[in-house]
Request: fold
Amino acid sequence: MLGSACIAEYIHFTAHRVFTFPGGTVAPIYDELIKIGCPIYTARHEQGAGYAALACARLSGRPEVVMVTSGPGVTNLLTVLADAFYDSTPLLALTGQVGTCDFKAPRPVRQKGFQEVNTPELVRTLVKAVFQPLTPSELPEVLEHAFYLAAEGRPGPVVIDMPMDVQRGEFSPTHRNAPRRSIPVQLPDMTTTLAAVADSKKPIILAGQGVLLDQATVALRDFALRQSIPVVSSLLGLGSMPGDSYLHVGFVGHTGMQVCGKALQEADCVIVLGARLDVRQSGTLTENFCPEARIIRVDIDPAELKHPRVRTDIAIQARVIDALAALNTLPHPDINVSAGRISWLEHIRRLKDAFPVDGPSMAHAGLSGVKVVRCFDRLTQGKKVIVSTGVGTHQHWTARHFTFEWPERVLLTSGGHGTMGYDVPSIMGAALVRPEAISLCFVGDASFQLNLQELQFAVDYSLPVRIVVLDNSRMALVSQFQRLTWGRDPVTGCVVNPNFAAIARAYGYAAETIETESQLEVAVQRCLATNGPYLLHCRIHNGDDVIPMLLGGQTLDSMYPFAE
Reply:
């Protein structure tokens, strides 16, 4: 059996598809994939292929496969690997490599082959594991182990670097090993945890992406409803609690909602489920995080619990779904506790009224990003929607104003790595794996131009994606930071952009540009009603900022420009 045939067979029977941008050092595998009828989705850039695969993996919950060539193919994929690593997304990356005779040759020169880089050393800090089989007979074990590792424990990317001679070499495969089984993490004793929750009168849940990764949304909602506990989320945890639930408070942190910070700072018990509590969630003043609360943390990653940024009173290494199963054994709260929690929920409702989602800069007349997002949200209520964003002001307006409820209304965005250009290729992957849902991408004018070549993907595979470009001719989040810090915004405050609708039409999209609020409703209806790919170019107000915002040196309950 050829090594390339072994690789192709494994992809076909585990991932069922592969995302790629072509290159010579993976060409043998393409031929074998075609022979067995495995779907190949070809992007226009390695990053585009990688992000389409990441979106599929986030939605399917299992590793997807991206395949790129050696040298520049590998270096172009590094950003995707970082995104998968920091946002815990299972991914199997197959990279081409020159023959072993080239990179093993003992010649002290920089490069021995063509399009050659030391892939294992380049990717080592961005992946869970990297393999470089040196003989074809190693491939079955390596492929199986890599696929297992990508999904095991805290998910993430795994790389297999494949020398050309290994792909083209022959071997006699033995019987396949039995599939590896996950080793369950033993749930520690929950007695103290159950008592802390049962006794609290002002508890709050902070739901992170771990809730979604563990498919624990039903268990979370049951627990929150039975115990009358409000829920805030991290950015990547949005959708854990339905956005229209009376228990949903919003998302917390740097560009989150002031009411969430207020509620956390006043709580007497904070239950953190699968969230990292990084600086974007907890702020820089870690010693002042939730000062009145007993903090309970549940995480699958022991390193997160062993090295916390903030005080942790009870640390539970477990899957979120298992911890919630134990918490759901709690009886309904007694009369005194129940009365306290009802009063707590009413207090949070008053905080919502006192601290609006957006600051004063959003009060102007005219077309704004918030108005566009709200209009799409209203006109898609009751429908399945997958939303992707890039990184910037549009990302945070979407998180604040679109209603999410996993798995019916899902947000796909770059959290830990914060990558502009995540947007367009991700919605392409989402449209492939969830064809029954509306595939909607909100993207800023700057983020859009990093991967706009992937507009072709929707045309190639007949995907009815909707791209909404919120164009304020400004790299607004950086501009806002510059203005707040130095009083001016060189290189970011006034950006000259092309006609994005004309570019989209060149790719075969239906497209239009709007500039006034009076055009919005009809344009959104037209966008949603179109069967094929559609781009709506919205020229929005240049001065809109993301306000309130948590700045360095502020506690969660005093975000700029609001204060105590």
